[in-house]
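Supplementary notes for students who missed Thursday's class. We covered one full example, reproduced here. Read the sequence, then the structure, then the short commentary at the end.
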Amino acid sequence: MKSYHGNLGGGIDGIVLREHDTPQPGPNQILVRVRASSLNARELSILRGYYPLPIKPDVVLASDGAGEVVAVGAGVTRAKVGDRIAASIFPRWIDGPFGLEYSAQLGGSLDGMLAEYALLPEDAAVPIPDHLSFAEAATLPCAALTAWNALCGSVPLLPGQTVLTLGSGGVSLFALQLAKLFGARVIATTSGADKAARLKALGADEVINYRDVPNWHQAVHAATGGRGVDVVVEVGGADSLEQSLKATAPEGQISLVGWLDKRTGASTISMASISATVVRMHRIAVGSRAQFLAMNRAIGLHRLKPVIDRVFPFADAVAAFRYYEAGKYFGKIVISQE
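Structure (token representation):
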């Protein structure tokens, strides 16, 4: 079998394709024939050297993947041969709040999914909705589950509430799609007319061009009658958090995704902006297996389709990383083996 490996701070140029024996599952393990993987910001942060959780040397890259179970070890009860599954990034995080004891993660301290076969703990196996292809299902484990947790992991989103999404990255697009499933109103920010039209087509009720309106929190207040939004899915970091604080309604929630400042690790948020608000902040660590199962039930019921920008063949995985790094995409980037 073949697999793509990398190292913390090793860069895209350091990605190596290796060939080795196909592993066999031991007790409570499953062997998955990977049919598709997808890329996330976490992969770039690992290669650039600032991912906060432990990364094993020469790790098999990519947390996200989907495929079919081809072998099971002794004692396995969560999966059987032939099952179509996606891999839960944190296999030990079954339910409840996140803790460091659950922090072992695929594509980090554990080998990931950018391989022809993946040996996984059975707890990592999550059945995928019947209407999704492997390529579509491979987009769910990080971005979609993060969006789900951001919307309902702390205080569940209710019909009629208003959600603010920032930009058109994977988490933001899933947050828009999932929020509409809840019957929420969605205000989105973006950088151009083409992206604004595509966000509208996905269901956004209002779109604000942050280049035309640099103080976009004022436009958010205008669009909500001065009240602000109930939930912000904050993916922009320190550059946008201060405006998100100003855009949130009293007792609303800001769900923090990623890191406040990728360059320095420090925030530039003024204490005055924090003191002037009465909001909750919920730091997101993707999501648990239980949340993944709940999300997939909703996706299956509503037959939600992920937005995929481009699909690369497995042989061109490094080109997929370079395309992702360039940032000129709308939707998920998938590496397929189908």
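Commentary. The chain has two domains: 2-139+306-336, 145-283. The two ends are 15 Å apart (CA to CA). If anything here is unclear, bring it to office hours.
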